[in-house]
Amino acid sequence: IQAGQFEVPIISEKVTSGSRILITPTSKTALTLYVAEKIPGSGFVVSTATPSPQEINFDWWIINEVAEANP
Question: What distance in Å separates the CA atoms of residue 13 and residue 42, rounded to the nearest whole number?
Fold first, then answer.
């Protein structure tokens, strides 16, 4: 998230409505990062409640569960 901004879109066709998206800041920040929106087939938006005074770097991970087939 760039300094002075409060959100950034992440493009990924792997996102579904049931995706779990984990966010891990990799730079120092006092702000809480959260997934503000999931757009199935397109991506998601990572946000903070207020604009960041400095750039925030983060890693993300998408988890999509697959239903098991019954034998």
Answer: 5
* pLDDT above 90 coverage of the chain, percent: 89
Q: What separation, in Å, do the N-terminal and C-terminal C-alpha atoms of the chain show? A: 46
Tokens 């903070």 sit on residue = 48
Q: What is the pTM of this model?
A: 0.87
Distance of CA 11 to the CA centre of its chain: 10
CA 22 → CA 14, 18, 45, 63, 69, distances in Å?
14, 13, 12, 8, 26
For tokens 């992440």, name the residue.
Answer: 10
DSSP 69: P
